[in-house]
Design a protein that fits this description.
three-stranded antiparallel β-sheet; Aspartate Aminotransferase, domain 1; alpha/beta; Aspartate Aminotransferase, domain 2; seven-stranded mixed β-sheet
Length: about 375
């Protein structure tokens, strides 16, 4: 049975080109990049090259790139780093953020910080005016994601960044889902900090990036030998970092062709769902959306049951964010958008990627209507 993968927003497979770079680094660069001898200098050159590649991909300076273990650490480092430096104050975020942001903000609330969670409308988009209205004299940080991981809806980060700049407030954006799918360029948008993750862009798990704009003071969470400009001490994960650099270069190089291709596949998927499955709808059907992401509701059929049925037939999708899938609850993102708990639990995410093909969409559309119909009949019969 052929396996069809439609869960790229959860994690993407490592590309062959990236795998080659990782394997070469493991084989040829065993030394510590901090060592002064020749093998150490060779390792340092690999580290510097990867940093240059990521910086170029983001429109940043290489000195502004900090390598970390992934998106969650990057978000934690940014938010806590700014908060600890202020020793208190007010933070603005949104109700639809990734748990790595929401749980960090809740932790800071338990330590005396005040947090405003700005809501969203049915479109799943944050209103910049709501952010502006939430600003207080003691606001020290605004953290709003670039694109939502469940719906793919792109947030107005450029407008929110300008609001932050006008008030002298640092802004952080979680760009983990956006990077590699849509252009992410910090040279044109005044964000102070930005987070990305390797395994979302076909690099290995266990590596990510925190961008810290020059002049931004951010306290370190990990202390020790002073690696990564003192922001993230510890010997660097050189194979992962080398893979991250290669993946970032490939993503930016190919985005002009890949984004329209994925958008075409997504349109085929959504058109087929709405045509073949009565009562279905697309959650977050906003024109500003990631080209690869569909979040669909099938009222009357529990999303998790649909997921299991598809899995048995070789199709991998998601009924929630993989980072929150261990919590048996409806999506906080869909609830924030105004969906009922029943409809939120009847929703699924299909996320496409590099190896998605038109025939995969056709296979899904052949199987999905029957699954939904069967589950609805069981629900009604019960």
């Amino acid at each position: 049975m052929e396996e069809i993968y439609m869960d790229y927003n959860s994690t993407a497979p490592i590309r062959a080109e990236v795998c080659d770079v990782v394997e070469k680094t493991i084989r040829d660069c065993h030394a510590n990049p901090s060592s002064l001898h020749l093998p150490g200098r060779r390792a340092k050159a690999v580290l510097d090259d990867a940093r240059e590649k990521v910086a170029e991909a983001l429109g940043a300076r290489s000195s502004e790139i900090i390598f970390v273990s992934g998106g969650s650490e990057s978000n934690n480092a940014a938010i806590k780093g700014i908060a600890w430096g202020r020793r208190g104050g007010h933070i603005i975020t949104s109700a639809i953020e990734h748990p790595a942001v929401l749980e960090t903000c809740r932790f800071l609330e338990s330590r005396g910080f005040s947090v405003t969670y700005v809501g969203v409308g049915s479109s799943g988009r944050v209103d910049p005016e709501a952010v502006a209205e939430a600003v207080r004299d003691d606001t020290c940080l605004i953290t709003i994601m670039w694109a939502n991981n469940e719906t793919g809806v792109i947030q107005p980060v450029d407008e929110i960044a300008r609001i932050a700049s006008e008030h002298g407030i640092v802004i952080h954006t979680d760009a983990v889902q956006a990077f590699g799918k849509v252009p992410v360029d910090v040279s044109g948008i005044p964000v102070g900090l930005l987070s990305i993750s390797g395994h979302k862009v076909y690099a290995p798990k266990g590596v990510g990036v925190l961008y810290v704009r020059r002049g931004i003071v951010c306290e370190a969470l990990v202390h020790g030998g002073g690696q990564e400009r003192g922001m993230r001490s510890g010997t660097e994960n050189l194979p992962g970092i080398a893979g991250m650099g290669e993946a970032a270069s490939l993503a930016v190089r190919e985005i002009k062709k890949e984004a329209p291709r994925l958008a075409k596949l997504r349109k085929k998927l959504e058109t087929g769902i709405l045509k073949k499955i009565s009562g279905s709808r697309i959650n977050g059907d906003h024109p500003e959306r990631l080209p690869n992401t569909t979040n669909a509701a099938f009222p009357g059929a529990e999303g998790e049951a649909v997921l299991i049925s598809l899995d048995e037939l070789g199709i991998a999708a998601s009924s929630a964010s993989a980072c929150a899938a261990n919590h048996a609850d409806a999506s906080h993102v869909l609830l924030a958008m105004g969906l009922s708990r029943e409809d939120a639990e009847a929703s699924m995410r299909f996320s496409l990627g590099k190896f998605s093909e038109s025939r995969h969409i056709e296979k899904l559309l052949d199987l999905l209507p029957g699954i939904v119909e069967r589950l609805r009949s069981l629900t009604q019969g019960g």
